[in-house]
Amino acid sequence: MASSRVALPFNVDYGQGSVISSSLMNGSWHNATLPTLRTMPVQPGQPFDIRIRILEGKYKILFNGKKVSDFKIRISISAIDYVSAKGDIKLTEFRVSGRIFERPLDIAFLGGHLNLNDKIIIYGRPTGDGFAVNLIDKNKEIAMFNARSDGKKVVHNCGEIGKFVFDYRESHRYFPFDNETEFKLELINAANGL
User: Fold this and answer.
1) Dihedral, CA of residue 110, residue 111, residue 117 and residue 118, to nearest 10
2) How far apart are CA 129 and CA 109, in angstroms?
3) 21 and 11 in contact (C-beta within 8 Å)?
4) Which of 3, 75, 103, 156 lies 20 to 30 Å from 81, alpha-carbon distance?
5) Is residue 16 part of a domain?
């Protein structure tokens, strides 16, 4: 990294039991170490989910869904050109998200189709009475997931050759899709079905 500015270095140090998070401006590091943690939020060899959310004036840092720290933004986010990951880590997924996409959103799969065990992961927040995610084959809907907040129902169908063979409807006492909460919807193309 040949730069005089680094917006957010982020380093998990197992030896010290700490997470180091700082910024490099004009050749000097600022606010290097967050408080020492009683237990490390991630363990060597275990899967983890680190999220860095950019909020008004700060980064919110979460490990496995739990907040670890807030860190003040010192360098404009518009100046960030790239992300670098190095060290003793096996990356299985890396994603930059948070943009609000136009709807309807139509995206083709890489290679023209889903492969076995491919995942479709959608993060969002409902803004009205419901939403739908449809998988389409040559303009024919073959799978549909529909969350309807008006009746607090989730409907999903899977079909083949244009004919639905599975229709599952479930009413929820606790409806997971409300307009105040971000959701994660994960669809997996498994050997036994979607």
Assistant:
1) 10
2) 28
3) yes
4) 103
5) yes
Domain range for 169 is 110-188
> 103 in a domain, yes or no?
no
Q: What is the average pLDDT across 35-49?
A: 71
Summarize pLDDT for 54-77 with one digit per residue, the tens. 877 888 887 777 777 777 787 787
User: Looking at the predicted structure, is the pLDDT value of residue 168 above 80?
Assistant: no
> CA-to-CA distance for 129 and 22, rounded, in angstroms?
42
Q: Tell me the mean pLDDT in the region 153-179.
A: 66
What is the residue whose two structure tokens read 């040949």?
Answer: 2
Confirm whether 105 is domain-assigned.
no
Cα–Cα distance, 33 to 84 (Å, whole number): 19
Whether residues 115 and 62 share a domain: the answer is no
3-state SS string over 134-171?
A: EEEECCEEEEEEEEECCCCEEEEEEEECCEEEEEEEEE
